[in-house]
Amino acid sequence: MPFHYFTKSLKELDAKGLVQFCQETGLEGFDLAVRPGYLVDPQNALVELPKLSSQLKSENLAIGLVTAPTSLTSASTLESKGMFEACSKAGVGRIKIGYFPYQGNFREQLTQARKSMEGFAQLAKSTGVKACYHTHSGSNIGNNAASLLMLLQDFDPHHVGAFADTGHLALNGGPIRMELELIKPWLSLLAIKDISWAPGKTGWENKVVPAGKGVVRWKDVGQGLEDCQFRGTIVLHGEYGAKDLSDRKALAREELKFLKGVFPKSLEKPK
Question: What is the DSSP letter of 143?
Answer without folding.
Answer: S
